[in-house]
TrEMBL record:
Organism, scientific name: Rhodoplanes elegans
Superkingdom, taxonomy of origin: Bacteria
Molecular function GO labels: thiosulfate-cyanide sulfurtransferase activity
Record-given protein name: Rhodanese
Gene3D superfamilies assigned: Rhodanese-like domain (3.40.250.10)
Length: 132
């Protein structure tokens, strides 16, 4: 039997973006370095090593997000217990839109994501660290 997918990833991302705050890359760059903001990089470690990193961003692999946010989880990370704004980003903005909606639904607040992701950040001249 062939599967019939009735909702596509583009639909899920569009729905998420209607419910979350999306920061333009210039807004996100302006927030970088603000002690009241935690940037959360959802990309795979191979992406970080290949493309570079946003200085000071906390790396949270997308597959661990819910477990690291939840204080009842044995995998909880204290960074998510801080009284700060969490700005999620990925390579292009789709994973971070979905992640931001998930974090919001879990009760993490305030949350936002970077529209266009790391690609837009890099193109706009945002600060980047390259691993050597």
């Amino acid at each position: 039997m062939t599967q019939t997918i009735t909702k596509h990833v583009a639909d899920l991302v569009a729905e998420a973006e209607r419910e979350i705050e999306t920061l333009g890359v210039d807004q996100a760059i302006a927030l970088h370095g603000d002690s009241a903001v935690v940037f959360v990089d959802l990309r795979d470690i191979r992406e970080l090593d290949r493309e570079g990193r946003v200085p000071g961003a906390f790396h949270c692999p997308r597959g661990m997000l819910e477990f690291w946010i939840d204080p009842a989880s044995p995998y909880h990370k204290p960074v998510f217990a801080q009284d700060k704004k969490f700005v999620f980003f990925c390579a292009a903005g789709a994973r971070s839109a979905l992640s931001t909606l998930t974090a919001k639904r879990m009760g993490l607040a305030p949350v936002a994501h970077v529209g266009g992701g790391f690609g837009a950040w890099k193109k706009a001249g945002g600060p980047i660290e390259i691993k050597v």
